Amino acid sequence: QIVLVSGHLDSWDVGQGAMDDGGGAFISWEALSLIKDLGLRPKRTLRLVLWTAEEQGGIGAKQYYQLHKENISNFDIVMESDEGTFKPSGLGFTGNAKARDIVKEIMTLLQPINVTDVYDSADGTDIDYWMRDGVPGASLHDDLSKYFWFHHSQGDTMTVQDPNQMNLCAAVWTVVSYVIADMEEMLPR
């Protein structure tokens, strides 16, 4: 059984893609690194995917889906961060009401950093195939007030990234992915 965390590498026009979507790739990598460094071993596999070609029609995600859809019942949740890694506020979630209640309970663990909101739906081109087939999905919600200042521009460099805000995003990603991967049962569908 698999909990998938992801971001994509899609800077194809200008800039370096450090924020869009290097930030999502960074926090996904960091979540798995933190779990490993803490010596935690969840019941399910945590899998990192760094998607390619999202801007060219999502062909990397489509290929991955085609290769793994026969095992779709083993995917517990698919998580994608694709809107920068500014100050987080919570998660977008797509899934049934019982699964949403579980995710809301998990998010209460993040009260100390004031990131507890669960929004109506998850967004993510790269996880849409899975969610359409009933796999619960989550996307990071963060402060988008500066996102389009840098989106697909020459200004999208590492200087855009605030290490403290990225650490908060990584904390959200780490807690949610680990807790879901270590629950007795998969999220309900």
Automatic annotation (TrEMBL):
Main location: endoplasmic reticulum
InterPro entries: CPQ, Peptidase_M28
Gene3D superfamilies the record matches: Zn peptidases
Location within or outside the cell: Endoplasmic reticulum; Golgi apparatus; Lysosome; Secreted
Domain of life: Eukaryota
UniProt domain Peptidase M28: residue ranges: 2-173
GO cellular component term of the entry, any: Golgi apparatus
First and last residue of the signal peptide: none
Subunit details: Homodimer. The monomeric form is inactive while the homodimer is active.
Family: Belongs to the peptidase M28 family.
Name used for this protein in its record: Carboxypeptidase Q
Lineage per the UniProt record: Eukaryota, Metazoa, Chordata, Craniata, Vertebrata
Gene this chain is encoded by: Cpq
